[in-house]
Amino acid sequence: MWSQFRTATNILFPRPPHQLINLKIFSRFLHFKLNNTFSSQSDVDSFLPWLQSKSGYQISSLLSIKNSIYGNSLFASKYIHAGDCILKVPFTVHLTSNNLLPEVNSLLPDHVGHVARLAIVVLIEQIKGQESEWAPYISCLPKPGELHSAIFWSEEELEMVRPSVLYEETIELKAQLEKEYLALRPALDQFPNLFKDIKYEDFMHAFALVASRAWGSCKEVSLIPFADFLNHDGASREILLSDKDKQISEVIADRDYAPGKQILVRYGNFANFELLLGFGFALSCNKYEQVQIRMNVSQHDPLHTMKLELLHKHTVPIVTNTSTLDSCTKSFIIKLVLLNDFYVYKSNPYVKLC
Q1: Which residues constitute the signal peptide according to the record (predicted)?
Q2: Is domain 2-278 classified as CATH 3.90.1410.10?
Q3: I want to staple 316 with a disulfide (CB 3.0 to 4.6 A). Which of 50, 155, 229, 311 is the partner?
């Protein structure tokens, strides 16, 4: 059995030095960026019976779908005890890049990643409309304009966080998405009946859907219906687990829940810039908040070898930035603690790889 985490963007870039965002001020702006994505009541009412019929499983007898300020969410419908299995979703109803039409998949360049391939799957199912076998699930997903990850922010909104790692990564991710779209567009053009009306904005929305809702393992990303209605709490110990032998994904309660209480899981150990980039929200008290500082050691530096040896000696992994031929880039992490309105920095002995 292995744990799965929300993918965020799954595209990481070298991170430049940056300034901090004062979340006390920024939270006023973020209040309006909550993902208020609500499906119609008829869509919600028909979704779980459809999923249980399609999978042949009782997905959950303990949870129900309701609206919260975060959109569609999962709540306890009965008393839940710590250790209870609160949902099970078999692999047979996971939506992955393996669902991509073989004739389309065979034409895509090898460098097109799992997230982009799964985004194309979502686009195809959206195009099919009610004829799609996944229609009850697709109809519950956010519509264009209902996602608030940083790639959808206006220039004015992005200027509010400049300079910062969030600003830099948002710009780089948008550029990467454009390159990805241009790389796969020739393959899509081979199927005009399917993709003739698909524009970059459609791909961008589908990509963001997958990046914010899919669960990732070391080899694949999956959209897991019902489980993707779970919202994030960085302090939660509940995570999605996948059992390869049983071919199911499940969540085990880490605490007791009274009926009507919202179920929260931890998407991963994400800093606020990662939450904003991938999901469109931030936490005022985030135990995983961090600052990253990039250090370049030029290959032409006479002390290049000595500096790398010193870094290695002090447990700093050697990470090469392949985007430049002239330097080897190290990204150091500093934990950030907000104490009595003052930022207190604590050095951290590990390095987050780019």
Answers
A1: none
A2: yes
A3: 311
